[in-house]
Write a structure and sequence with these properties.
Blueprint lengths: L1 H30 L5 H23 L1 E6 L14 E4 L5 H9 L4 E6 L8 H5 L5 E3 L4 H17 L3 E3 L18 H9 L3 E6 L15 E7 L10 H19 L11
Helix pairs in contact: 1-2, 2-3, 5-6, 6-7
């Protein structure tokens, strides 16, 4: 019974997204040559807010956030690089809604091929890269990341690169740390327990609470990228085990 109810509520949720994304994305694409990048971003965040709050109203997915006081406020022009845990689509929808500054995602260019949704994000100040061309991808991340930060955006890069199952840990790549060092800005570790309610590669949303923990910004000056990313990894994974202990088996004593 519980599964059937969750399936029905999830179906309603996906119908809401499908019905709303087409007109919303169409408006974004049509307005892209006419309005500022900041205003266009706010229009898109309106749809992301709808998607995030619809998950709460229809599927019972709630969230609680801690550590927002670690971040610069909306009136503070300082830039940061965000390095969140990536478990589901939820954080890609929710983080732009939660954060006080516009976000520039670094993502694989294949997402641009998704009808309507991809066309809309292609109109924004985002960094879409070809992962098969690593050197060219990094040059694009560094150049565009610096440019978007100068406009007041924060750059967000998922260190594990892709969504990881609940209770698991992917390889942390140093791209976000390299960008923080290249631009001289801090990197912010973020833990997100979204797979508790929205598992990887699943269309079924289950009721529950997603915890988001924002860590203190880590200074990048004088650091090596691998060392800096290890510090990010240590903070994120320790926070994940604190926030979602039932997902991680206890470690055997040495």
């Amino acid at each position: 019974m519980a599964f059937a109810l969750a399936a029905l509520r999830s179906l309603l949720y996906w119908l809401v997204l499908a019905v709303t994304v087409i007109p919303w994305a169409t408006v974004v694409v049509l307005l892209s040559p006419l309005v500022s990048a900041r205003r266009l971003y706010r229009i898109c965040v309106g749809w992301l807010a709808l998607a995030t709050h619809a998950s709460r109203l229809l599927c019972g997915v709630r969230w609680r956030v801690q550590g927002m006081d670690h971040l610069p406020t909306a009136s503070d022009p300082r830039a940061v690089v965000l390095a969140p845990k990536h478990q589901s689509t939820w954080e890609t929808f929710a983080l732009p809604v939660l954060m006080p500054h516009p976000l520039s995602y670094v993502f694989k260019r294949e997402l641009l091929w998704i009808p309507f949704f991809g066309w809309a994000i292609g109109s924004l100040d985002m960094v879409h890269i070809d992962r098969s061309r690593r050197s060219e991808a990094w040059a694009k991340v560094a150049e565009q990341g610096r440019r978007y930060m100068a406009k007041g955006n924060w750059v967000i890069m998922f260190p594990e690169g892709t969504r990881t199952p609940r209770g698991s840990q992917g390889a942390y790549r140093a791209g976000g740390a390299r960008l923080a060092i290249a631009t001289g800005v801090p990197i912010v570790p973020i833990a997100v327990t979204s797979a508790r309610c929205w598992p990887r590669k699943s269309l079924l949303l289950r009721p529950g609470i997603i915890d988001v923990a924002v860590g203190p910004p880590i200074a990048s000056e004088g650091r090596e990228a691998d060392e800096l990313m290890r510090e990010v990894e240590t903070w994120v994974e320790a926070a994940m085990r604190r926030l979602d202990p039932e997902a991680y088996p206890p470690q055997a004593p040495p």
